[in-house]
Write a structure and sequence with these properties.
CATH architecture of the largest domain: Alpha-Beta Barrel
Distance between the termini: 24 Å
Bound molecules: flavin mononucleotide
Number of strands: 12
Number of helices: 15
Helix content: 40-55%
């Protein structure tokens, strides 16, 4: 399956209901988006190479990781390195982190000057060093400050403006609903909900009923987020919550094919070709042998059409993008980690994984991929 797989051509059953979301373009403010699947902002992941890969996989809106507003206005070099969007295909969203309405407004103006097509505000980060500075999800306890922040950013920029939040701070506190209404009334043009509280971190399950509740309360688009790792999940979130778009984070790491598979399944659902996620094909169970030990492993159905060559080529493409964006030394070092995701479950992956952890140069990785191809051909 190529990254640019066309949408399904299966005809809709007679009498199939047409979902209203099929009839209306998906808009965030003045920005009309071609896709209802959006890659999530992720620290140390959503860099320029990753955004490029997401775009090749079909994403329309891509986003940076969170960027500190204080760092931007103080011209801190490391913070500005994260704002590497100059000359990138539009639209790119930039996510801001901070808690001062004035500094956030100034930072919002800076990122729009740099080319951001959309400004997103982080109200969900649970990390202690962030919440300890009263930023990220700590703001979920400060509705008045949130109102001032949203008003201040809104007044500073004219591009679309969104807020990404968690379900609440802890326990049974699902303050997201009331905060989302505040954000909407102060000018946010969409809200994204990662349906876990700050206290949950990444444990347990995201509570999608909160996304449905938010959809019912707001007029602006609601983007559902949390635990979508398969096309069936994307359809279920879409069906159960009525959300306008689905945001995917961890599932896309090392697996850009998930993007198009989710889009295709959601398009089938919207057009009435399928009415339930149960109609999305099942994963395959394959047996992977490592050091003489055989173990079963789930392989997503859409990977049936992805050749090993395509996976190895993607390692090379990602490496090239990393070297272009960050220079050879840093790019290759960071690729040690990324490359592990692409080779999961392939024959001889243990030995390959170990060798990938030692790569020093782009040439090393090119050679390694070539040797691996020869190994497969001669096995
Ligand atoms: C490595 C990593 C880094 C993240 N960094 C950010 C970030 O910078 N800003 C943000 O709003 N959320 C961040 N998140 C949260 C994701 O955007 C997303 O809300 C969360 O992972 C749930 O979605 P998922 O289940 O599809 O992964 C991060 C998550 C991960 C795993």
């Amino acid at each position: 399956m190529s990254l640019a797989q066309p949408e399904s051509t299966t005809p809709a059953p007679r009498g199939a209901a047409t979902d209203p979301r099929l009839l209306t373009p998906f808009r965030i403010g003045s920005l009309e988006l071609k896709s209802r699947v959006i890659p999530a902002p992720m620290c140390n992941v959503s860099d320029r190479p990753f955004r490029g890969l997401n775009r090749s996989a079909g994403a329309h809106l891509v986003t940076t990781q969170m960027v500190s507003c204080e760092g931007l206005v103080r011209h801190d070099r490391k913070t500005w390195d994260l704002l590497d969007i100059a000359g990138e295909d539009a639209p790119v969203a930039v996510q801001l982190l901070g808690s001062s309405p004035e500094v956030l407004a100034e930072a919002a103006r800076i990122i729009v000057d740099q080319g951001a097509a959309l400004v997103d505000f982080n109200m969900g980060c649970p990390a202690r060093n962030v919440t300890g500075n009263a930023c990220g999800s700590a703001l979920m306890k400060e509705p008045e400050l949130v109102a001032r922040i949203v008003r201040s950013i809104r007044a500073a920029i004219s591009v679309p403006f969104t807020v990404k939040m968690r379900a609440g701070w802890d326990g049974e506190d699902f303050s997201a609903l009331s905060l989302a209404k505040i954000c909407e009334s102060e000018g946010a043009e969409a809200v994204c909900l990662h349906a876990r509280t700050r206290a949950q971190g990444y444990s347990g399950q995201a509570d999608w009923s909160l996304i449905a509740a938010m959809r019912a309360e707001l007029k602006v688009p609601v983007i559902g987020n949390g635990d979508v790792v398969s096309p069936a999940h994307a359809v279920r979130m879409f069906r159960e919550t009525g959300c306008d778009a689905v945001m995917i984070g961890r599932g896309l790491i090392g697996n850009p094919w998930l993007f198009r598979a989710c889009e295709t399944a959601m398009a089938d659902y919207l057009a009435g070709r399928i009415t339930h996620e149960d109609q999305v094909p099942d994963d395959d169970m394959v047996v992977v042998e490592e050091d003489g030990v055989a173990r079963p492993m789930r392989v997503p159905f859409y990977m049936r059409e992805v050749t090993l060559r395509e996976r190895l080529d993607l390692v090379l493409k990602h490496t090239r993008l990393m070297v272009e964006a960050k220079g050879e030394r840093r790019g290759v070092l960071e690729m040690r980690k990324h490359s592990q995701h692409y080779i999961r479950g392939i024959r001889g992956c243990k030995a390959l994984r170990e060798q990938l952890m030692k790569i020093e140069t782009e040439a090393d990785i090119v050679r390694l991929m070539e040797e691996y191809r020869v190994f497969l051909a001669t096995e």
